[in-house]
């Protein structure tokens, strides 16, 4: 199956987990994972199966932070359940093609975790987040925006007023350090979207190898943060990990020399002066046809016993 198979599937991550009744995630994947068919949940939604991971892709995970508990970080001000179970999250966003493969492992047992839900979200080449374009652009009276002064309510500034941790509350913008991943909330609450855009957001369910695959673009940047992708892992109804992944600066420079990234100038924050960056968050990136392939392992505390 191709990477476009999930495009347009508007199935809430919460409804996927909680609304399929007696089918269950195991039954869901068993029903649709081998014959290329689809399954209809008890809510009436149809979910397409995830593509089977090729053995050559699995081998790329060797040495990519295997079985190490992944550091938790703030979820930032722009997370919400985007109701998109899909592998291709690009929609109309232009940029360098990026295939992203994430393997979820139990940090104690060092084995793959099947049936976990992995969500990712990130900004576009101009630094904008879907569902929060006004806030992330510095609109509504805020100064600056991507490439300028960090806006009020924008990335790297004060969170939007309708999100916990906003103006007058502790937390600040998407610049905080580790906050503990068991709840995923950290110093931010979930955003109420302020527009109908949902580009560069999506979720997938891990296969038997614990792997999900996304097709996206290389993320853009905004003031106060290095280049990154947000990720969240859910097991049953629990958020067991909220983290971010980063990119090698040599590759960032190479990608940003081309359009549409080259039109966005004035980048001020890099891996070495970012408040969240850690070497363990670096993607293992290789050139892949006309784009790039990035892989990373997430080690999660699946039973949430603190180890």
Automatic annotation (TrEMBL):
<protein>
    <submittedName>
        <fullName>Protocatechuate dioxygenase</fullName>
    </submittedName>
</protein>
<keyword id="KW-0560">Oxidoreductase</keyword>
<dbReference type="GO" id="GO:0005506">
    <property type="term" value="F:iron ion binding"/>
</dbReference>
<dbReference type="GO" id="GO:0016702">
    <property type="term" value="F:oxidoreductase activity, acting on single donors with incorporation of molecular oxygen, incorporation of two atoms of oxygen"/>
</dbReference>
<dbReference type="InterPro" id="IPR015889">
    <property type="entry name" value="Intradiol_dOase_core"/>
</dbReference>
<keyword id="KW-0223">Dioxygenase</keyword>
<feature type="compositionally biased region" description="Gly residues">
    <location>
        <begin position="163"/>
        <end position="188"/>
    </location>
</feature>
<feature type="region of interest" description="Disordered">
    <location>
        <begin position="133"/>
        <end position="195"/>
    </location>
</feature>
<feature type="compositionally biased region" description="Pro residues">
    <location>
        <begin position="148"/>
        <end position="162"/>
    </location>
</feature>
